[in-house]
Amino acid sequence: MGRRFSIPLKFFGVFILTMLLVAGSFMATLNSLRKQVSRNEAHAIADQVLAFRSWIAQSGMVWVQKMAPGFHDFLDEQSSTSGTTFYGKNPAMATRELSFIMTRESARSTFRVTSDKYRKEENAPDAFESAAIARFQTDKALEFVEKYEEGKYRYAQPLFVEQNCLQCHGDPKDAPQTVITKYGKEKAFGYKIGQVRGVISVTVPAVGLRDVLKSLANPYSIALLVISLILNILFIRSVVMRLVELTRNAEAIAAGKLETVLLYTNPSESNDELDHLYHAVNLLKRSLVILFKRINNHGGK
Number of H helices and number of E strands within the chain? Predict the structure, then answer.
């Protein structure tokens, strides 16, 4: 067997290993935390989109008198008795326009609603969204799909067909003539209740580990770190260094230096096992002193 390591070196090794394990656990927790923060933000946006679409779907269509700049698409138009023209937008159109506005004006998050059976080319899914749709179609119990991509957090949530969706996505025979006129009889029809219509895809900036670490660099965290270091220093001084000192004293006594002084608290006043060990070594030293005196006295006779 090789030479054994000293107690201080063993303690230092265990201390470093413990710190590395704690740091590893800490980093894993931070990574989980940053993902959860991004997921919660994306999920909240997806829920708002669902509520927006549901509100329009329950009304059938939202009607506007004035077309917003850049958004001239509409499904139907009607004129009032006063001659004012109103333009109707279904849930898909209204959601798409909201998505464009958010993409153009938002500094953080964007969203889009897409499907593998889309009616407009600009609404075609990208690679992440196509993969998410395929996974949701395979596993109906899957709640979301997520991925980090080019410094962004991507999130997709399934969009299921409900009763009020069938009017425009069920049998073409039941669809309003305005839908048939605009999209034809082939695109995005034939769905049944409960099927995956598509996904709500949300993109938010990825929260970096550096950002999370900055948030943790507060007075409380720093104070706890300093206290931890102080406690370790006190442990080294009160246990490790005393063991080293006792070892040296015992070696000195073994070498015949019986005048070596052992400093410790009497065991009757201390529960510290090191004080008891010091006392035992001190008793052994006294026994050696007495033994050597008897040997010398016997030799003198």
Answer: 9, 7
Which residues have CB under 8 Å from 99's CB, separation 6+?
110, 111, 112, 113
Question: Which residues have a Cβ under 8 Å from the Cβ of 211 and sit 6 or more positions away?
Answer: 34
Residue 160 β-bridge partners: 196
Is residue 231 a contact partner of residue 225, using CB atoms and an 8 Å limit?
Answer: no
- Exposed, middle or buried: residue 52 (CB in 10 Å: 0-12, 13-18, 19+)? middle
CA–CA separation, 139 and 129 (whole Å): 15
CB contact at 8 A, 128 and 156:
yes
Confidence of residue 107 (pLDDT cuts 50, 70, 90): low
Please write the tens of the pLDDT for every residue from 210-239. Answer: 766 676 677 887 888 889 889 888 888 888
Distance of CA 269 to the CA centre of its chain: 51
166 membership: H or E segment, kind and range: helix 166-169
Q: What is the pTM of this model?
A: 0.67
Mean pLDDT, to the nearest integer, of 4-16?
79
Q: Could you state, in order of their start, the residue ranges of all structural domains in the chain?
A: 7-207, 218-300
